[in-house]
Amino acid sequence: MHxxxxxxxxxxxxxxxxxASVRAALVDERGTVVAHADQPIHIWEPRPDHxxxxxxxxxxxxxxxxxxxxxxxxxxQIRGLGFDATCSLVVVDKQFRPLAVNCEGQNHRNVIMxxxxxxxxxxxxxxxTQHRVLSYVGGVMSVEMxxxxxxxxxxxxxxxxxxxxGCFFDLPDFLSWKAxxxxxRSLCTVVCKWTYTSDGGWDDSFWxxxxxxxxxxxxxxxxxxxxxxxxxxxxxxxxxxxAKDLGLxxxxxxxxxxxxxxxxxxxxxxxDVKGHNLPCENQPITSRVAxxxxxxxxxxxx
Length: 302
Hints:
The protein is of the alpha+beta class. It is 29% helix and 24% strand. A hairpin with a 3-residue loop joins strand 1 and strand 2.
């Protein structure tokens, strides 16, 4: 009998950083979840409405769960990985070392969490401008978005943080940088939480109007002037250092990241629903709504 030689199964790693834990899944080329793991991450609440995390703690958890899910397969069959995460703000200095976002100067606490509400007065002032970019975020900006947090840092930690900062990352983009050494940002993060637009890019007049004109003068180096569509390959893949940390082969593809709820929306709205007798089976994906639940809940649609 003639038998065809089967090609090795290809695998992919998805890493999801939530509010209180990091999860990883190993998925085969058919979309079957082969293995999964999770690990808690630390949250600091130094005062009311202030919530902070550590990018080093988060990265260590990413490495731990990735090694757990990948240990049962040949590493050479893992072809790529991607990150999604909460839309928290990560601050690093000019040497890409963690930089404190707190008055105590605790550099390991360098992440202002998505649910942090310290910038309440800053977001009120931003919304009072009625600038045209606000129309892209529902007419008013949330205190959980990044511009008010940046303004808070400039007004409250100018010497300790703002003047020393080298980069401000959305957490999903920080993870892509950590994996590849490339500071490119995802279109998902900068549009949804930073006021970037796909056709016009950054609006200089907005940043000048709210008092963050130094970002414009810096040609947006600190918040991102290289933007990729979600899923595009970032740089040349995993760096040798990141590959060692994650227990994966050097150079495998890393996809431009997504905000966690948007990754959930992609998975649910784009799911194959054939054969389940669902009303949406023969309808376009624009007719679907996904509810993504976690520490907060989002309704996602296309």
